[in-house]
Specification:
Trigger factor, domain 2, Chitinase A, domain 3, Alpha-Beta Plaits, alpha+beta, extended, about 45% helix, about 20% strand, 3 domains, five-stranded antiparallel beta sheet, 11 helices
């Protein structure tokens, strides 16, 4: 087999392969043997058809069937022999015809990791947010806990008021005609949440159970459906149930439910946790600033296959987080295509960052030793409350262990870079809240 390797770019190579005639003949022979087992030709038993007859009836099929193994086996060997680490599935871009007694030629392109020599990575100028703690954060967290434990119960009051949740049936009409997707049954609506068409919820305040009413509204000009945007509509509404929020008291009883001795101890725990999380957030932001500066000093392209792989990981993580909240991508108006478009730049930066950290590790001879691996496993066991032997068993797999080593290595390189960086502390930026978020907080 003859192989020629050509660099198309720092991230792509072209392999031109020529497989000798003997190998072609052997693979064609295998193809005809397989075809002979099932070939249905009048006058011959299956498995007993002469080769010349098979060639007449199944020649193109045998050529096609032989091409697959010839390409797969030779391409894999060519990559190994030439020490080419493919980061995505190689693509056959040109192929000859498999013919008996003749060499088989084809060309394939393959994406590879770029060979990077990192530069300008010491003494990076970075900004780090100053740590500050506002005691009101404890009260805010207590209110968040209370809100999460708030339940809805059917109210004894006759009329709905702002903040209640009503169960309604509704149907919308424009010019007296019902429109698509304009009806709902047993729909749960929190009054004051501003989650429905502007003006709709306010007209339900004061309604009684089993009361029917016509609600007049106008769809916003920027409404998602062009057929409805800016048009007046009438909704026939039936209130079937009225529920009110039952909010727990912030007291010692609540604290005991949360495994604290009393309210004072709970407040101390909340303060400690809040401080820990805030410091983690600040450190995380500093690391993001580090990666932004590092990537800014080192411009290079990354293989599409690595970008696609990173997008796959991002999407998996994103959908898991959504699922934990009872949501889906579709509920956010996203599909696979729009997700990839939205997060492509993030995926590129993550790949660039990982490649740069690996390059710096090699340049600075930063390595991971066994004691660091053992320590990280122990940390995982402690944090997740899982026996150490189970954690060790999980990392017996070659791929999992490689991932763990990679994580430790990147953490070490990040620390190396931060230790050498010129870090300036800056005042925290004020947190901006939109109107909807503010009103939601007030109502809860």
């Amino acid at each position: 087999m003859k192989v020629t390797v050509e660099d198309l770019s720092p991230i792509k190579k072209k392999l031109s392969l020529e497989i000798d005639a003997d190998a072609v003949d052997a693979e064609l022979e295998n193809a005809y043997k397989e075809i002979s087992k099932t070939a249905d030709i009048k006058g011959f038993r299956k498995g007993k058809v002469p080769k010349k007859i098979l060639e007449q009836h199944y020649g193109p099929k045998a050529q096609y069937n032989a091409a697959g193994p010839l390409i797969n086996n030779s391409l894999y060997k060519a990559l190994l022999d030439n020490k080419i680490e493919a980061v995505s599935q190689p693509e056959v871009v040109e192929s000859g015809v498999v013919e008996a007694g003749k060499p088989f030629l084809y060309e394939a392109e393959v994406e590879v990791r770029p060979e990077i020599i990192a530069k300008d990575y010491t003494k990076l100028k970075l900004e780090k947010e100053k740590f500050s703690f506002d005691e009101t954060a404890v009260q805010q967290q207590l209110e968040h806990i209370v809100n999460s434990r708030t339940v809805l119960e059917v109210t004894s009051r006759k009329k709905a008021r702002d903040g209640d949740t009503v169960i309604i049936d509704f149907e919308g009409f424009i010019d007296g005609t019902a429109f698509d997707n304009g009806a709902g049954t047993d729909f749960e609506l929190a009054l004051g949440s501003n989650s429905f068409i502007p003006g709709f919820e306010a007209q339900l305040v004061g309604m009684k159970r089993e009361q029917e009413k016509e609600v007049e509204v106008t769809f916003p000009e920027g409404y998602g459906s062009k057929d409805l945007a800016g048009k007046p509509a009438v909704f026939k509404v039936l209130v079937k149930e009225i529920k009110e929020k039952i909010v727990p008291k912030i007291d010692d009883a609540l604290a005991k439910e949360l495994d604290a001795k009393n309210l004072d101890e709970l407040k101390v725990q909340i303060k400690e946790n809040t401080i820990t999380q805030e410091k983690k957030r600040i450190d995380g932001q500093l690391q993001e600033n580090l990666m932004t500066a590092l990537i800014g000093n080192n411009s290079f392209d990354v293989p599409e296959g690595m970008i696609e792989n990173q997008l796959h990981h991002l999407k998996d993580s994103f959908t898991r987080n959504l699922k934990a909240q009872g949501m889906t991508l579709e509920m956010l108006g996203m599909d696979n295509e729009s997700f990839a478009k939205t997060y492509r730049e993030m995926a590129i930066e993550k790949v660039q960052g990982e490649l740069l950290l690996d390059a710096i590790a090699e340049q600075e001879e930063i390595v991971v030793d066994e004691s660091e691996i053992e320590s990280k496993m122990q940390s995982f066991a402690d944090e997740s409350d899982v026996p150490l032997d189970q954690v060790q068993k999980y990392f017996e797999g070659e791929q999992n262990l490689a991932g763990l080593k990679g994580q430790i290595l990147q953490e070490k390189v990040t620390k190396f870079l931060l230790d050498q960086a010129i870090v300036t502390e800056v005042e925290p930026k004020p947190v901006e809240q939109d109107t909807a978020a503010d009103s939601e907080t007030e109502e809860s």
